[in-house]
């Protein structure tokens, strides 16, 4: 039988062992090696680039190294090795389906951008071929999109009137496209994809919805056959222009023809959603509409009775436009700024769409390679048919090659047949594509989850709708940055308590069952950075909590606070202002007879605290966890 003396000795030994282990773990925290600095990180980046250069890897031959580099630059070399005839059947169907949708949409988007119709078709020939060789997405279908087609004229027409001087306007559009491609390629080469993230998801949702409505209002010109129409994009100016046009003679035949085929296209979309086997129906509906409407106008000579038609579309592949680029003009600075805006918006939309479909198919999309590929498309050569491509069962980027060849054949052989195509049909095709840009469910979800995000969303929406596209973007980005700054300079703090039956600690507000320890106040910072912008706020917030807890303790006849344990596990970095605020906090607590302890500091943080001799000032009270920080003060 074990004696009481033996039990007491064993308990004492256990406590001594635990105390020794706790002291040893404190040394783990205090004796960490020096963390890597900025120079080390830059050196690692340089080494990672060096490793990608051929001939540096001695384990493989130079031929393998060159081929690996070519595969990294041209992903087609990787997937084409396993390409089979069964995949080509799916890609051929997807490519032909895309072409049937692409041809009428491209012509319509070119007119939206205030360019000649053939320019829309040009963007669906060479750029898809470049993307098929260099892109990493299997589903993205290359061609003009509604938002960029609106963005270009809305900003460029302030520099050059597309009606008064269409050739000068066309040169500026080509120069903007070149700058956009240069920026996109540079983002990818220098791993600067984070710049695209400046446009938050909420901002994009609001911007797209506002742009969709603005684009729809712009189509009233073609749908109603209005001759004189405003160049402004805000809803008030457009509605004034439409209202004033009713006081002048106008032909209702444009409206009747356009609305008839708009209803037809919308019905086919409804049927395609109801029955997935009919995915091809809404895809070919725009082409069928163009063919039927063109035949109607040609056979009835409706162009003689007020129906406005496209007239001549230049055939053949587009000639080189290098000589049309304007690098020495008076507007080169503004053109470069527009190119940057277009580059970011186009990348944001395309990469977001590409990633969503890549996730469904279970493969990774390389954002940097996407940027380089899209940049080169715009430099050498502009994206909303991706869902059609996916529905058509696309397997690889070969579908883009099929589409490009089909469009090229159409440019060479069939452009003369489009002479009698009504402009109202092009307007109806664009209008039919706009509902997909307005995502009310997502806007509602944003409202439910984060009110500040919704503010950015609605700010972008109203800015585009009632001002300009640039102002809408500026409002959204400003609100998003304001949110980041607000969260950074006003970080929260939370009081912790021990969760019953465990050694874990949680926020007492989140977990009401958490138990506070008398005489000990445990607080956790909810910020990744303690710096000049928020250091004083955090210190004042902690002192306020200490005073309130001390007051409550006296009222409830509990023990007064003896120690404040600061859990800084969330804190990734700290600057000299943050250290100074902690020193001042220590002095304030010490003058009130309280001690300060630090729990779970991160690598960079504890290194800086040791360099500033803060650890010595608080008596070395730095612990690996909150539980161990409480042990010396438990009563």
What's the short story on this structure?
With 635 residues, the protein is mostly helical. The protein is built from 27 helices and 8 strands.
Structure in words:
The protein has 635 residues and is mainly alpha-helical. 62% of the residues lie in helices and 5% in strands. The protein is built from 27 helices and eight strands. It has a six-stranded mixed beta sheet. It has a two-stranded parallel sheet with strand order 4-6. α7 (126-134) runs antiparallel to α18 and α9 (166-189) packs across α15. The longest helix has 30 residues, at 332-361. It is elongated.
Layout of helices and strands, plus pairs?
Blueprint: H1 4-30, H2 38-51, H3 62-73, H4 76-79, H5 85-112, H6 118-122, H7 126-134, H8 146-156, H9 166-189, H10 201-218, H11 220-224, H12 235-245, H13 252-274, H14 280-300, H15 332-361, H16 367-380, H17 386-391, H18 398-413, H19 423-433, H20 440-449, H21 451-466, H22 469-489, E1 492-498, E2 505-507, E3 520-526, E4 529-530, H23 535-555, E5 563-567, E6 573-574, H24 576-591, E7 595-599, H25 603-611, H26 614-617, E8 622-623, H27 626-630
Helix pairs in contact: 5-14, 5-18, 5-19, 7-16, 7-18, 8-15, 9-15, 9-16, 10-21, 10-22, 13-14, 13-19, 20-21, 21-22, 23-24
Q: Report low-confidence residues grouped into runs of 5 or more.
A: 45-50, 52-58, 382-387
- Straight-line distance between termini: 32 Å
Helicity level: 55-70%
Number of DSSP strand runs: 8
């Amino acid at each position: 039988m074990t004696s009481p003396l033996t039990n007491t000795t064993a308990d004492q030994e256990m406590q001594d062992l635990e105390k020794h282990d706790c002291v040893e773990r404190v040394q783990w925290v205090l004796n960490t090696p020096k963390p890597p600095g900025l120079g080390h990180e830059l050196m690692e980046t340089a080494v990672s680039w060096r490793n990608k250069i051929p001939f540096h890897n001695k384990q493989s031959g130079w031929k393998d190294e060159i081929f690996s580099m070519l595969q990294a630059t041209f992903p087609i070399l990787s997937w084409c090795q396993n390409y089979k005839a069964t995949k080509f059947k799916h890609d051929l169907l997807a490519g032909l389906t895309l072409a049937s949708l692409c041809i009428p949409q491209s012509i319509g988007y070119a007119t939206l951008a205030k360019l000649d119709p053939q320019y829309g078709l040009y963007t669906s020939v060479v750029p898809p071929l470049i993307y098929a060789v260099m892109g990493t997405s299997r589903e993205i279908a290359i061609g003009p999109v509604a938002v960029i087609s609106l963005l270009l004229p809305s900003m460029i027409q302030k520099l050059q009137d597309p009606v008064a001087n269409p050739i000068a306007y066309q040169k500026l559009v080509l120069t903007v496209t070149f700058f956009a491609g240069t920026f996109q390629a540079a983002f990818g080469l220098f791993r600067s994809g984070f710049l695209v993230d400046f446009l938050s998801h909420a901002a994009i949702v609001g911007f797209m919805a506002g742009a969709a409505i603005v684009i729809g209002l712009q189509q009233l010109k073609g749908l109603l056959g209005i001759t004189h129409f405003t160049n402004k994009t805000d809803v008030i100016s457009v509605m004034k222009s439409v209202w004033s046009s009713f006081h002048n003679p106008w032909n209702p035949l444009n409206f009747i023809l356009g609305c008839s085929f708009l209803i037809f296209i919308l019905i086919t979309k409804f049927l395609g959603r109801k029955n997935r086997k009919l995915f091809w129906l809404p895809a070919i509906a725009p082409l069928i509409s163009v063919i039927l409407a063109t035949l109607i106008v040609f056979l009835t000579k409706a162009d003689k009775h007020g129906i406005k038609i496209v007239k001549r579309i230049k055939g053949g592949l587009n000639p080189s436009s290098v000589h049309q680029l304007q690098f020495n003009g008076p507007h080169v600075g503004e053109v470069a700024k527009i190119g940057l805006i277009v580059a970011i918006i186009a990348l944001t939309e395309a990469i977001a769409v590409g990633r969503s479909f890549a996730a469904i198919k279970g493969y990774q999309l390389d954002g940097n390679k996407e940027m380089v590929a899209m940049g080169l498309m715009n430099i050498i050569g502009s994206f909303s048919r991706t869902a059609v491509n996916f529905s058509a069962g696309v397997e690889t980027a070969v579908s883009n090659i099929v589409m490009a060849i089909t469009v090229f054949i159409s440019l060479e052989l069939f452009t003369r047949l489009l002479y009698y195509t009504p402009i109202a049909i092009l307007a109806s095709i664009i209008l039919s594509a706009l509902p997909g840009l307005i995502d009310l469910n997502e806007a509602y979800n944003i409202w439910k989850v984060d009110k500040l995000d919704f503010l950015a969303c609605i700010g972008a929406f109203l800015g585009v709708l009632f001002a300009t596209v640039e102002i809408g973007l500026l409002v959204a980005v400003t609100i998003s940055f304001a949110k980041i700054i607000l969260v950074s300079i006003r970080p929260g703090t939370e009081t912790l308590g021990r969760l019953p039956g465990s050694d874990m600690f949680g926020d007492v507000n989140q977990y009401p069952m958490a138990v506070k320890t008398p005489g000990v106040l445990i607080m956790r910072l909810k910020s990744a950075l303690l710096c000049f912008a928020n250091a004083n706020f955090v210190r004042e917030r902690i002192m306020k909590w200490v005073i309130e807890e001390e007051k409550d303790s006296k009222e409830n006849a509990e023990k007064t606070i003896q120690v404040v344990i600061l859990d800084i596990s969330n804190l990734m970095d700290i600057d000299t202002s943050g250290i100074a605020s902690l020193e001042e906090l220590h002095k304030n607590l010490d003058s009130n007879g309280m001690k300060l302890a630090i729990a779970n500091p991160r690598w960079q943080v504890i290194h800086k605290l040791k360099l500033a001799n803060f650890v010595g000032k608080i008596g070395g009270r730095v612990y690996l966890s909150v539980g161990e920080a409480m042990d010396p003060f438990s009563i």
